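hiii, so i know i said id send this last week but things got crazy w the move. better late than never?? heres the sequnce for the chain we talked about at the cafe, plus the structure i predicted for it. fair warning i was half asleep when i ran it
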Amino acid sequence: MVRRTLPQALSKGRSTLALKLEGLDPATLFSPDTSVTLLSALLRPPTDRQAALQRAVGQTLAFVRQRAGGGADTVRASVVRTDPAQYRLPDGRLLWTTRVSALPAELVRTAPDVTVVLDAARDRPRTELAYVTEGTTWEACIRS
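okay and structure toks below
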């Protein structure tokens, strides 16, 4: 069990907080403060390549394109769709196979985050949350 006290004050009524909590199972999240009710918790895991590209639909990104005779070029193309992958070059041609050389940071979530909606019966000076996480484990080891 992890118990967190956040410096975030809560006003009476609904509040929405965005938090970074590693190892959280949102189904176990609750408020140990009896005057605060957890209404919802939405966990978003770290972004994988497919999700980042999905967020990039409509944006122009830098891609690495392999040359037929060896080597590679960096080209700019707009992400049209991700399944199947389609990228539009500035001259209007479409690419189906590319390797993204880098994605803008705003498209990638590097750690899980959770958005929680809380309802406070009265003003609170801070926010208290608790949740179950995977903890320390042990196993027996027999040595001869």
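btw Residues 49-55 form the longest helix (7 residues). thought thatd interest u
miss u guys!!
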